[in-house]
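Tutorial, part two.
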Amino acid sequence: MTRTETLRVQRYLREQFGNENFILKERRPADGTAEVLLGDEFIGIVYRDEDEGEVSFAFHMTILDMDLPSTS
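Running the prediction step on this input gives:
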């Protein structure tokens, strides 16, 4: 991902979730991905995809079972 794309996706996440604590960090070497942090905590990866000239971004977030609250 380019720096411009990273900043655009970061702004999108901040606006969509109403949270200014989203931070995207470009990965080196550049491999079409960026790390997503919420404050200091790593929460996922954004992948860049280009197909027939159309660019899209996919956000992947893994949630561990041990992090989920219990249902009471």
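The longest strand covers residues 41-51. In part three we will examine how such features are distributed along the chain.
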